[in-house]
């Protein structure tokens, strides 16, 4: 089962104990470990301006994983972030990493599906990175996100698309064998966002940026220290398969900024 690593918390403990030189409280120190999408912390930086945040805005991160993007936004902007994720072990790990980073007052996490998450107040903005590939009914899923946002709120997405029908090399970061993968062409993803009540502000193919990021990041081999694949079942194969599908054009990465319609 994808996202089935049961003891990810202990794996993080072991990795950080083995690397005492890594100060988890230092901003960005865990970027190679806790950003579960292509483009790492730099991709999150591309999304932040589109969120059009004001002081005091609370942001929703849907499918927050180990919490890297949520913590980065809190650090960069000073805003509070709430993450929601269906994988209990990942939420536990996200809370643990947030405590180590000293950010527990500004970044919180809930376990569950967005459909069953009922916040006290609508959020001022939301983001989701590399989650919808696991979701078959994307319109319903984005509609659930829209329902948790204030009218006019921004949504930023960083998403994997498959421009043409083609076999993918499994395992991938979001699916071990393809049975829980629902990757669609960019036009179809855009249509599902619009059908769910979002108006596009930007919809950009970032595949060239991603290829450059891969070249730069891995120019001298793997970066030193704790890294995300160490936490995942079959982690290195998943990352290599993904990089190869992005490099040969089988997959693309699209960045979007949207506004939630008023009614
Ligand atoms: C590839 S990871 C991305 C994590 C995070 N967004 C990041 O970029 O670091 C996908 C995450 O989506 C979560 N997920 C998958 N389906 C979900 C759903 N229907 N609702 C909420 N989370 C979901 C998984 O548990 C996993 O943590």
Cα gyration radius (Å):
17 Å
What value does the average pLDDT take? 96
User: How many alpha or pi helices?
Assistant: 9
Strand residues, percent: 15-25%
CATH H-level homologous superfamily name: Vaccinia Virus protein VP39
Major sheet size, sense and barrel closure: 7 strands, mixed
SSE ordering: HHHEHEHEEHEHEHHE
The end-to-end span amounts to 38 Å
What structural category characterises the helix and strand content? alpha/beta
CATH architecture designation? 3-Layer(aba) Sandwich
Low-pLDDT runs: none
Protein name: Ubiquinone/menaquinone biosynthesis C-methylase UbiE
GO biological process, one term: methylation
Domain Methyltransferase: 59-152
InterPro entries: Erg6_SMT_methyltransf, Methyltransf_25, SAM-dependent_MTases_sf
Question: How would you sum up this structure, described in words?
Answer:
The chain has 263 residues and is of the alpha/beta class. It has one domain: Vaccinia Virus protein VP39 (Rossmann fold). It is built from 9 helices and 7 strands, in the order αααβαβαββαβαβααβ. The protein has helices at residues 8-18, 31-34, 40-47, 68-77, 88-100, 138-147, 186-195, 207-217, 235-247, and strands at residues 58-62, 80-85, 107-111, 123-129, 149-161, 198-205, 252-260. A 7-stranded mixed beta sheet has the order 3-2-1-4-5-7-6, sandwiched between helices. Helix 6 (138-147) crosses helix 7. The model has no long low-confidence stretch (mean pLDDT 96). S-adenosylmethionine is lined by residues 3, 35-37, 63-65, 68-69, 85-87, 90, 113-114, 129-131, 134-135, 173-174.
